[in-house]
Design a protein that fits this description.
about 25% strand, seven-stranded mixed β-sheet, globular, binds guanosine-5'-triphosphate, Spore Coat Polysaccharide Biosynthesis Protein SpsA, Chain A, two-stranded antiparallel sheet, about 190 residues, alpha/beta
């Protein structure tokens, strides 16, 4: 089984005010910070950006475009498109707006996922879930995602009701919760 690194970057960035995945800071676009961390982890056989058809031409790498039926369905819609493209593989997902995720954390997620191949493994911080930093895998995942999208219950919490999920909590590891910092507004970068 291959591991596919997935940079989620198909959102609307309403709160940010412009497309945050393409916003440049510290000399790199936001999605490139995430891409580079996935690449440097050495865990991914391939890395793709998952986005919509309007944004796709702006990324300088392979993109997977959201399925027409599930455009603007949020991150679960994005994951469905990637799972369709890579049905046999494990998806190591990081959203473009969490650009400070560490190599060590990616390694911890990956090794937990490799030991429990039927489980989704997501990040958590004192019980608060960070499902857009996680590993998505297991039999029937594509079909479960499709069913969830059809049900119109588009939250990760709703999706997790039907799957085995491991929450890897940063408070139990020797890591700084800053690595989960989520950029929703411009001020979040400072
Ligand atoms: N492929 C894909 N990714 C999405 C979609 N909606 C959100 N995302 C991604 O999922 C992650 C979390 O998105 P949010 O921050 O909740 O939403 P957003 O649309 O980017 O921002 P807001 O409009 O401010 O809520 C980000 O990496 C988004 O790019 C979607 O419909 N398709």
């Amino acid at each position: 089984m291959k591991t596919i690194g997935v940079v989620l970057a198909g959102g609307k960035s309403t709160r940010f005010g412009e497309q945050k995945s393409l916003y440049e800071f510290d000399g790199r676009k936001m999605y490139e910070h995430v891409y580079d961390r996935l690449a440097a982890s050495g865990l991914c056989d391939e890395i793709v950006v998952n986005t919509n058809k309007v944004l796709a031409p702006h990324f300088g790498c392979r993109t997977i475009i959201d399925d027409e039926r599930y455009e603007d369905h949020g991150p679960l819609g994005g994951l469905y498109a990637v799972k369709r493209a890579y049905p046999a593989d494990r998806l190591m997902v990081v959203s473009c707006d969490t650009p400070f995720v560490s190599q060590e954390w990616l390694q911890a997620l990956h090794s937990t996922a490799a030991a429990r191949p039927e489980h989704i493994v997501i990040s958590a911080e004192d019980g608060k879930l960070h499902p857009t930093i996680g590993v998505y895998q297991g039999a029937g995942l594509k079909e479960d995602l499709r069913r969830q999208l059809e049900s119109k219950r588009l939250s990760f919490r709703a999706f997790f009701e039907n799957r085995e999920v491991i929450e890897l909590d940063i408070r139990e590891m020797d890591e700084d919760p800053e690595i989960f910092r989520n950029i929703n507004y411009k001020e979040d970068i400072e």
